[in-house]
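The protein record quoted for completeness.
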Amino acid sequence: MKAGVDAKPRVLIQGAGIAGLTLAGQLERRGVDYRIVEQARTLEPVGAGLVIQPNARAILEGLGLGDALTEAGCGLKTMSVGPAGHARSLTFPNRQFAIGVHRADLHRMLLSIVPGERLQMGASLSGWQTRGNCIEARLNTGDAWTATHLIGADGLHSAVRHRLEPLDTLRDSGQWCWRTVLPAQPLGPHGLEWVRGTTRLGAIPIGGHRTYLYWVETGADAASAPTVRDLNAWGPEGRALADALPTDPHWLSHPLCDRPVRWGTGNRLLIGDAAHPVTPNLGQGAALGMEDAWVLAGLLMQGRGSAEALKRQRHRRVDNVRRLSWWAGRFAHGQGLPGTGLRDRLYRLMPPQWILRSQQSFVAGFFP
């Protein structure tokens, strides 16, 4: 029997993020023996917001979480996109096409379908040995677990990926992002992503009558968090967002980066950000990890759970989205163009329905 193929899979997952929990939820529904280990001692609410598009929504519905998503999220009516003052308004086909949700709420949804005894907190892999078709894994707690498959779902700085091969250097976009959550929806069920110069402002309504606010700037750093004054400069909508900004906002900040796609080897596989961190310009980072988990669960049930089989099914789509997201970010910031004025003129020439159809085209590239 080839490595990675087993009629009765026994799966060890490192990382209880969105990709890892999605895989765990799939394995739970299919009656597969698994354990998920997470190095954090407690699962605290983290992150800000994200947009659930139809591909990710279909996966959540397949996990029985459709109603929970409706309750926790906010369906967008429209999205204003382009240069501030000259943006194009996109009207979505329905309120289910783009659903704003707090990342912590999505995490709680997925955690609710994983039994507590399957999740071990404060634990991580300290090493493993491969014996035939089995992996004898050692945890930092002193525990040992024998698995047919080891899954690295441990994020951007994946320890599993690093053990399989040296980590590729992150590719820096030259853009820095700040994210926070406003305790109000000053724009109602309408989102925006505007550009001005080399700066981008985004606002997405999410569940709980809140707004996910993000700010991306070229050539900035962690010390350059946006201020009320910065927001006020973006017209009436910016002033409304500034009025809702807490006195001492909690900004999450980081550079926008990606790295080459890697899937692991044999029965030691990578999914989500461990396999393919992407820039967030198309809002598909979490969705791609959920897609990986869905496809991998199916391969495991078919006795084809290898990194090579996952690569055959996933690589073209994932790498295409990664590349498109990178170039979408460069275009939004005028990088590679003679100036941001040309970018603004190109934005104004794009018919709104063409922008929406382009978004729909790559979202439709995956449905479970």
